[in-house]
Amino acid sequence: MTNLSPLQVERLKYQPKLPSSLSEGINKLTYSEGSATESVANQAEIKELFKNTYGKPTVTFNSSNETQSFEQRNVGVILSGGQAPGGHNVIAGLYDALKQANPSNKLYGFLGGPSGIIEGKYIEFTDEFMNEYRNTGGFDIIGSGRTKLETEEQFKSSLEVCKKLNISAVVIIGGDDSNTNAALLAEWFVANNAGIQVIGCPKTIDGDLKNEQIEISFGFDTATKTYGELIGNIQRDANSAKKYWHFVKIMGRSASHVALEAALQTQPNITLISEEVEAKKMSLSSIIDYMTDIITRRSQNGKNFGVAIIPEGLIEFIPEMGAMIANLNDIMSSLEKDSHYTNAEQSEKFSIIENTLSSDNAKVFSSLPTLIKAQLLMDRDPHGNVQVSKIETEKLLISMIESRLKGTGVKFSAQSHFFGYEGRCAFPSNFDADYCYSLGYNAFALITFGLTGYLSSVRNLTEPASNWIAGGVPLTMMMNMERRHGEMKPVIKKALVELDGPVFKQLADNREDWAMNDRYLFPGAIQYFGPSSVCDITTRTLALEQGVNKKVLSATV
Ligand code: FBP
Predict the structure, then answer these.
(1) Is there a contact between 172 and 185 (Cβ–Cβ < 8 Å)?
(2) Per-residue pLDDT tens digits for 22-77
(3) How far is the CA of 136 from the centre of ligand 1 (A)?
(4) Which residue's CA is the nearest one to ligand 1's atom 6?
(5) Pocket test for ligand 1, best of 146, 173, 206, 432 (most atoms within 8 A of CB)
(6) Pocket test for ligand 1, best of 146, 172, 204, 496 (most atoms within 8 A of CB)
(7) Of 342, 340, 313, nearest to 325 (Cα)?
(8) What distance in Å separates the CA atoms of residue 333 and residue 59, rounded to the nearest whole number?
(9) Which domains does the chain show, CATH number per domain?
(10) Catalytic residue positions, numbered
(11) pTM surpassing 0.70?
């Protein structure tokens, strides 16, 4: 290995921690079953679509006195969707468990996301190769992709590739869309007697793949701490120069968990939460009223500066925008196949869109600046999502506030930022390094017990790693029916910010104080070595949701 930074060298030596139920060894496990499960909604439709994998029980692992031995087997792994810190450690945990079970076992990595299994593009992991990636950020070990696995042809070619490599289990490391793929593939393999198990691992910096069994998806911890550091630095700058308002858009496609967590870590002057905007039916104009009021009141106190946090997915949660985008998504799926539209110039495209949208939605679309209109028309991702990371909501808000303040005498000079990609490939924090390694190790434990259509689950995460609880949760339990590409499809339901929950309450109780009095916090960079109170601290979100706020928040008071 050449060209390693000093931190890389030290991180490669870090030995991630496992829950004590798993740390006795992969051959020393037993498991207990919970009761049968139901999907979160649309039970009848989901049951019908997942005849073989619906309704299975949750499972929990415990260490056993008996030692099992395992036949040789081959496993495939896929990294799917957006990068999240710790993905390499999931593979490392999976690899170590698999080799511990039987040194002749093989792990194949499919290249470039789900398309790797369809096209038969893979590598075989070796000790030497795996060791280069332990505790590192990124998904570059095998690459990632967003191909949606849903057609009969895709399933058939995946089966052919697995048969060729003698693979009897596939682990899909992904977010809600990717684990929907995992559920579909698991069902298809059972229905076709393929003898191949499918296990998912909960990944996404967005933090929206969670429920009672999945306390948080991996990557959220590291990504939010990275954004916390950057926002803290911006706050110092704003408070030093006292001349700019910084509008910071924070990644997180739909849910505002990332923006909310970053706000609790840094205490900025304004934080918008998409779920609140939707619940209060706030129009774009009323959001501008809210922000302009704070900017004006601060200005009256001689403070022509501040920091505002804007969640990436905001635009879809503003009622008139959300309705227009839903209408746009439906019409785009047919317009994208129409050569008259695809060959048209931008201005002609806008008028085709305005003539095809309903009249209310056409009015909303036409009221937007050209830049935002063009960004709204960009390609959808393979799952039918608008690519909100490409929509510059922060600039839209700045320009609308500038117009609103014109002639009022309030000084408003703004800088815009988008913190997203900066946080997705950071070196995993100690928490994510341990959590990811445990998720991967645990995924192999699920495989050894013959389970399929399960998501690797490690919980009790605010406790030391030795007290974490390892097990599995059926993927169908998290599903409901949603409209995608103009059709109803089974998908894993996103967990949005709960407005009556303790995390949002922490913001709501403090935001007026933070708006007017500068209560900025400066979290600084993630620490990997040093006192546990700094290095092993979890997120406010996890701590508040698990009711251990005192321990974690004391550092901020
Ligand atoms: P996943 O849901 O796949 O984890 O991706 C999350 C995310 O980082 C979102 O926060 C963001 O909107 C999106 O990916 C960006 O996608 P891309 O990487 O394709 O630009």
Answers:
(1) yes
(2) 999 999 999 999 999 999 999 999 999 999 999 999 999 999 999 999 999 999 99
(3) 19
(4) 82
(5) 206
(6) 204
(7) 313
(8) 40
(9) 6-219+428-492 (3.40.50.450), 220-424+500-528 (3.40.50.460)
(10) 206
(11) yes
